[in-house]
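Query protein
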Amino acid sequence: MMDGDDTPQTIPEPKSPPRTAEVAAFLAARMCHDFISPASAIVSGLDLLDDPNAQDMKEDAMNLIAGSARKLTDLLAFTRVAFGASASAETFDPRELAKLAGGVFNHMRAQLEWQVDAPSLNKPAARLLMNLAQMAGQALPTGGTATIRAVAEGGSIAIAVEAVGPRARLRPEVLRGLAGEALGEGLHGHWVQAYYVHLFTADAGGRLFADVGEEKVTFVATVPA
């Protein structure tokens, strides 16, 4: 969290955590929000194909269906790890995680730089990389570069994520979520992802920091290996 200087601040423990059922509902709503746009676009493309008065738009309809199907598939594959972490898997190949993150960034304005130097990652580290990568991309609404780094150091995995670009920012509700605080004003879809990151990082015995500077957002985290 930012306090006016360039020193990252430790994110405090939650003061009054929301109920588990409420968090689950917000997570479900967040995922539905992500999926509904490409799913609706696929339906719109199919409707155009069925419209006898829109046969001259057949190529546009096919492009809309293909692009939306790719986006939906990319989001589903990403979400399975970021929010569910493939329940049966305990370790993850960073190269596969890079593909998942890259699929999401294909539909963002920001560019992805993947610099993960670790042979494998446990479930908390994989979840952190996926969520922080997506949050970094969302922090760059007009474009920029999100650089993802991770390295195994002794008994810990150290993660650093930097989002650099014009108008780089974090919403106040994201900072509240990372701090383990309940949602005040703002959008619960942005808050709940950050709050979820706070929860599983704390449960894993890890630590999480965030800093917002001029045209740069930085996340730093450590979790036991």
In short: Residues 1-5, 11-15 have pLDDT under 50 and may be disordered. Helices lie at 20-50, 58-82, 94-105, 123-138, 172-178, 188-203. The longest strand covers residues 145-153.
